[in-house]
Structures are given as structure tokens and as C-alpha cells.
Amino acid sequence: MQNELQPFRREIEKELVENILPYWATKMPDKKNGGFYGQITGEEGIIHEAHKGAVLNSRILWTFSAAYRIYRNPGYLTLATRAKNYIIDKFFDKEFGGVYWLLDYKGKPVEPKKQIYAQGFVIYGLSEYYRATDDSEALLQAINLYRLIEKYSFDAKNNGYREAFTRDWHPIEDMRLSEKDVNEQKTTNTHLHILEPYANLYRVWKDNGLKEKLKNLIDLFLDKILNDSTHHLNLFFDADWNNKGNSVSFGHDIEASWLLHEAALVLDDEETLEKVRKTVPLVVNAAVQGLLPDGSMMYEANTLTGSRDTERHWWVQAETVVGLLNHYQHYNDEKSLDKALSCWNYIKSKLIDHENGEWFWSICPDGSVNRKEDKAGIWKCPYHNGRMCLEVIERFCFS
Fold first, then answer.
1. Sign of CA pseudo-dihedral 119, 205, 277, 12
2. What are the φ/ψ torsions at residue 166 (nearest 5 degrees)?
3. Alpha carbon distance 342, 325 (integer Å)
4. Which residues partner with 92 through β-bridges?
5. If we measure between CA atoms, which residue out of 273, 145, 123, 270 comes closest to residue 199?
6. Could you tell me if 102 and 109 are in contact, meaning their C-beta atoms sit under 8 angstroms apart?
7. Is residue 382 a contact partner of residue 60, using CB atoms and an 8 Å limit?
8. Residue 358 near residue 25 (C-beta atoms within 8 A)
9. Contact between 299 and 310 (Cβ < 8 Å)
């Protein structure tokens, strides 16, 4: 298999350093108003007055911090520091704590709600910046956000984390991340992206309280979020953990398979790791039900109607590659390697924008490129595809 992995790794590294990172480094910095532009359309138009999202900025922070940690390229550090400073200066709520959801193009809050998903991503970015630089301010701010999540979002009665709050941390009527979500108190998406930053923070801050919270999050996935019958993730829950959704998200399934495994490895608790080791193949086998004959992964399916959404979103393909490679690497499953390589071939031929850089948002079910959605925006960031590349580069090293 090494004969297949070496050229694959070279292709991945070229994609990262010659396509993905240069796109964000050259097109996104907002030199007039600070930070980064909030949007580039699917037709490559920079929207200079677009709102700036906490998720986009924190994912830029994570990506360029991780790239600097691996390559020590000073240009990557410059961009990571730009993102860190803008987040702390503009997104942090100096009065009530936490980060705003959305700023205007000049850096003024226009949606000041406290979405826990966003707090988690800022922890992820700041903790990675600390991994790369030993910057004490980044670590301190990440710890402060962790403590705010535990103070306001953690449900001490029923366990788990509530979705969202007002600016001053009171209950909010509309808790949804986006219009397509179910308006419920707890979601898999937010729990997955608390697990992820908590694991990264624990890498650099071996706090016993954080360790217990990380272990609890893993247990929540195993005991509450994973469907015992299907091994897919249930997606939406009320406060008492009653399932309120009827969709399967193949991208979240495959992403969770490797993020759960990563978190258990970081936690370094043998009992927890053993439970996760038994679970990962079950989740992978459920996720690959979404694979299509061309090697790509469909978006989702409805468990009540049986309908399928076969749009190929960029982030789903990226997570598919990482999840399958993780299954190959740790379980010696060569079929998973074949599937990962097949998905990468689909990405190369369909999703990468070889003319303008970066990846398209998706490929529509009819095979056409989706240019209606952003190339960069509140949700379209360098994190999923950049992280895919970084995971491959770090996992497979050849002399």
C-alpha cells in the first residue's frame, strides 16, 4: 500500500500548499477594515461589505496555525496571528464574555448571540495557535471560553450542552445554527464541535476538570447520540435527549468516527479508548452506506421517507477521506483505503477549482458545479479541506 500512499500524500501536499492556502492568503485579508472579508461568491466576487462570521474567522485561525505548526512558514504565522488578533479584538464580548456570532464588515456586532458552536471553534483555533506558538494569551482566552461554556451551556440535570443564548447568556427562542436545522436544545453538530476543541485544548492544558468533561463528551456520543440500532448519529434532541430528527447526515457520521477516536487517544483513558475502538468500525460501516458508485459521499437521507440528497458537498468529501484513512490506519482495513483514494479521485476531478483555486461548494445531483453557494463565507472555510490535507500529511510520513 505504500506505493499508493506516497503519490497520494504528494498530491495532497501540493493541493494544500499550492491551491487551498494561497487562495485564502491572497484573496481573503481585508486590508481596509481589518481581519478577513466575509464572503467570496461562487463566481469569485469579493463582497467587501459582507458580514464577518465567528466560525469563518476561527477556522482560518485554526488552519493557518496548524499549517505553521507543521511547516514553520512565517507567512502562515502572519495570517494566523491576524486571525487571532481580530477575533480577540472584535469578536470577544468585553462586557458579557464569549464571542459574537456575526460582525458587520467594519467589525461591529450585528448578531451578538452566543452560539455554543462558535465558542467551540474559537477554542479550537486558539488552542491550535498555542500549539504552534506557545502564545500564552491564546491559551488563556481558550481556557476562559471553555469555562464560559461550562458555566452557561452545560446541562447539569440532563447532561450535555444547550445550543445558544442571548448576548448576556439568557435563553434564546431560536437556537438554530441555520435555517435547515431543527430548533431543539441539543444537537449532534454542536456536541461534535465541542468534543473537537476540548480534545485540542486538553493536548496543551492537562487540566483534570477538562479531562472529565472530555470523557463525558465521549460517553455522551456513545450513550446518547449514536443510534444503537443503525450506528448513525441521531442529530437533534430535546433537553431530555429524546430524538427529534429523522435525517441521517453521512458527513457527520464519518467525521464523528475519527474525531471520537482522536479524542479518546488524546484523553488516554484505556477504558474509554477500548469502548471507542469497538464503536468506530460500526460508525464507519454506517457512514459508507452513503457512498456512491463514483467514489463520492452523498449529503444525507431521510429515515422516514427514504429520500436521498445526493448533492456532493465539499466538506462531506473531505471528512470522508479522513474518516476512511483513520479506519485504514488504525484497523488495517484496506477496503477503507481504497474508498478514501476513490473519494480523493472524485475530489480532484470534480470539486477542486483548478482555474480559480479552492474547492467548489458542491456538485449538484445532476453533475453540475454549484456556483450559487459561496467559495468563502460564513460556512465555507479552509478548515475541512485544509484539515483533510494536514491529517494526511501528518499521518503518512515517508523517508
1. positive
2. -70, 175
3. 12
4. 99
5. 123
6. yes
7. yes
8. no
9. yes
**pLDDT tens-digit profile of 179-233?**
889 999 999 999 999 999 999 999 999 999 999 999 999 999 999 999 999 999 9
Q: Percent helix, strand, coil in the chain (nearest 5)?
A: 55, 10, 35
The mean pLDDT values, 10 residues at a time, for the chain of 399 residues are 85 98 98 98 98 98 98 98 98 98 98 98 99 98 98 98 98 92 96 98 98 98 97 98 96 98 98 98 98 98 96 98 98 97 98 98 98 98 98 87
Phi, psi of 311 (to 5 degrees): -65, 140
List the beta strands (DSSP E) in 66-217: 102-103, 109-111, 114-115, 164-165, 186-187
**Strands, sheet with 300-302, edge to edge from the N-terminal-most edge strand:** 247-249, 300-302, 308-309
CA separation for the pair 1, 6 (Å, rounded) = 9
Grid coordinates of 247:
435525517
Q: What's residue 398's pLDDT?
A: 66
Which residue's entry shows cell 482560518? 60
Q: Give residue for cell 467548489.
A: 360
User: What number of residues does the chain have?
Assistant: 399
pLDDT (0 to 100) of residue 179: 86
C-alpha span between 45 and 40 (Å, rounded): 5
pLDDT at 397: 86
For residues 121 and 119, what is the distance between their CA atoms, to the nearest angstrom? Answer: 6
CA 102-103-109 angle, 5° bins: 95
Whole-number Cα distances in Å, 343 to 144, 189, 235, 370: 39, 23, 24, 18
Mean of pLDDT over the chain: 97
Q: At 362, is the secondary structure helix, strand, or coil?
A: strand
Please say whether the beta carbons of 173 and 164 come within 8 A. no
- Contact assessment for residue 196 and residue 127, using Cβ atoms and an 8 Å cutoff: no
Q: Read off the amino acid at residue 35.
A: G
